[in-house]
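Progress report, Aim 2. The chain analyzed during this reporting quarter is listed below.
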Amino acid sequence: MSESERNIKLIVSYDGSSYCGWQRQKGLRSIQGEMEAALEKIHRRPVALAGSGRTDSGVHAAGQVANFYTGIQGMNAQRFVPALNGLLPKTIRVLEAEEAPKDFHSRFDAKSRTYRYFFIPPRMSLPGENRFALGLRRQPDIALLNAYARLLRGEFDCTIFAVPRDLSKSRSRYIHSACFFMEQGALVFEIRANAFLWKMVRSAAGTMLFYERKKTAAAEFKTIIDSGKREYAGPTLPPDGLFLWKIDY
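Predicted structure tokens for the chain:
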């Protein structure tokens, strides 16, 4: 970054179904890779793009935040919205663009990240709905699910939700909020935390649904998550219904 370069902050939405995830990977199609290719066409040189979170393969985003440095001076920041959207696949859309402080970093400055996992209750799903939500064969007990979700709040060891390949040095995370609610005919699990372990949201949601089906009492569920034993976790849900929803700074 030179003194003359501007820092541009983007809000990005994408359908992650056909991508290997956010992070650029050699030989694979990624969100970061597609966006950097579009930025290179605009700048006629390689441009590095940072993202607030590395969403996994198949995971979507409603409010991913990214930033890059540009030496183009005569272009209003908002003009990057149509410029990028004109070059990107329709599965990736830049929603907003603005000039940010020079030292702003979309990942390191993030205070919390919110994810939402969408479920379709037992009903006829609309065309395309299954691409962005997981179908349920029964209507779960939302009150019991929320009794579980309340136990996740605060700072605690999330080892039970850590998949074996997670290499995090610490598995302690601070969860600001977690809850289930109905919205426009869909069941939504929303969770906000300072950061997440790899596949943690999908594991937490799958674990709560697993024990809700067994009608496990909330007190017993607390003992289970406090044990930190991965073998007590429920299934890790597929990525289809998961969205990186919002980033707070």
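The radius of gyration is 19 Å. Residues 6-100 form a domain with the Alpha-Beta Plaits fold (CATH 3.30.70.580). These observations will guide the mutagenesis work planned for the next reporting period.
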